[in-house]
Amino acid sequence: MKKVHIMTFGCQMNEHDTEQISGLLSAIGYVRTDAPEEADMILLNTCSIREKAEHKLYSQLGHLRPLKEQNPSMVLGVCGCVAQQEAAKIFKRVPFVDLVLGTKAIPKLPMLVQNLESRPRVLDVSDAVWSDESDYTTMRERKFNAFITIIRGCDNYCSYCVVPYTRGREESRPSADIVKEARALAADGVIEITLLGQNVSSYRDGEHGKSSFPHLLRMLNDVDGLKRIRFITAHPKDLTDELIETMAELPNVCEHFHLPVQSGSSHVLRLMNRKYDREWYLNRIAALRRAMPDIAITTDVIVGFPGEREEDFQDTLSLLREVRYDAIFGFEYSNRPNAKSGNFPDQIAKALKVERLQQVFDVQRGISLEIHAGMVGNTYEVLIESANPRFPGTLTGRTRHNHAVTFSGSEDLVGSMAFAKITEAHPYRLAGELIA
Ligand code: SAH
Ligand code: SF4
Ligand code: F3S
């Protein structure tokens, strides 16, 4: 048995790619190891969404250099979004890398590993033909919840974003394959699935034509054994009334919507090429809350986009106060290769981005704390996801609304459903106790 150590740097799609890579490698005799020093192969599954993410790759490669020098036969590979974007440039910059594997070439990995036996270096960033993904041996991290890809790539070209260049054109998987994969997972004991795509709401199935994401949800809602269906990420521009009504109606679809807004200013949204304005976005939030009054809503915010004036930034803060998100992810704008906004005038100074992001977090901290405080004393159904290794005897569970709750309990409860009563509210977490 050979050993592979995989480091994963990116989003859920990147994590799921790691699960597929593990499965493909296990079929040719590899087992995963947590210890890089005992690995026959080390793979870095990279992310390119912001400059910092890309830097992580190069600093990690620096750390791994002594190991590679000691053990030259160890295969060192770079995969993921930076691999797709930089291709052969990675060999130039870091000559001790052996393998560069793009996001689209993953199914070819076993063959490429074989090629490495006769060649010093292997590069593949071409398109592979994805056959039915449910036929791959995907080695999932957990037994009770699972990612399922429903759509790959992105055609939206938000002006700041690298993803259309690292993941290629939008392409939906046939719904029959998705349902088949969901059924097989449920039969294996999975109770929660998360549907993955850069833009799940533009899912189009050949069989059902337009607007078939709601239809797909309906088919998955009927899969026996599944209790929770989540999805990430939907784009506000195609959040239709039909999708909202479908969510509200289907008992297994969780009451949580991650709806990235990016900015509260219509002027900045236009520069970002987001294809909606503040008014449209707020109208969609109102529609979600009309249909599901207690729905949890989360978002992504970028500060310091080129041309963001003080008044635009204030619009973002006021939007946070108006929507009252349960939680947000906030980012400083970062220039990315190929993304148009790198050439836009009025780039914002680093210090101002830092200051604006701090203000965003300050406003949100208060809102999240208020929302969490309102939950104290209530009891929620949780799926127990993990035991906390740092505090033995404590577990983390997730509510249908995607709130994480920590409580005491024994490790063998991981993977089961339970009820937890909330006892303490903090800005970024909730504490509770298990109800017998
Ligand atoms: N497809 C998803 C987002 C994927 S990237 C969507 O459209 O909602 C996740 C988040 O990273 C984005 O929502 C955005 O907030 C952030 N992001 C993307 N590109 C960025 C950049 N160049 N600088 C800073 N943040 C960025
Ligand atoms: Fe990037 Fe926009 Fe596509 Fe999301 S929708 S992945 S932000 S281009
Ligand atoms: Fe995901 Fe990062 Fe690629 S966010 S799609 S791994 S650039």
From TrEMBL:
Gene Ontology CC annotation, any one: cytosol
Subcellular location: Cytoplasm
The reaction(s) this protein catalyses: N(6)-dimethylallyladenosine(37) in tRNA + (sulfur carrier)-SH + AH2 + 2 S-adenosyl-L-methionine = 2-methylsulfanyl-N(6)-dimethylallyladenosine(37) in tRNA + (sulfur carrier)-H + 5'-deoxyadenosine + L-methionine + A + S-adenosyl-L-homocysteine + 2 H(+)
Residues that coordinate or bind [4Fe-4S] cluster 1: C11, C47, C81
Domain MTTase N-terminal, first and last residues per copy: 2-118
Radical SAM core domain segment(s): 140-370
Entry's family note: Belongs to the methylthiotransferase family. MiaB subfamily.
Protein name (Swiss-Prot/TrEMBL): tRNA-2-methylthio-N(6)-dimethylallyladenosine synthase
Species for this entry: Candidatus Moduliflexus flocculans
Gene name as annotated: miaB
